[in-house]
Amino acid sequence: MNSYVEIDPRVCNGKPVITGTRIPVTVILDQIAGGCSREDLKRKYLGITDEQIVGVLEYCHSVIEHTEIELQAPTS
Known about the structure:
Elements: E1 5-6, E2 17-18, H1 25-33, H2 38-44, H3 50-65
Antiparallel strand pairs: 1-2
């Protein structure tokens, strides 16, 4: 976790959100995947900063980096 992302069971059912907001991390990721730039995001979600957007991406990187994936051999 970092200072830009928080998980609170009382906010958005405990989903990761930008700290101090109700903007879920997944919403930011979906917008970026859809082609939104940082400037687009800041226009859509007034008050968020470049630092928060980067913090969301760093949080996601950290989650992926620390995820163990177990591969199973194909069965015949």
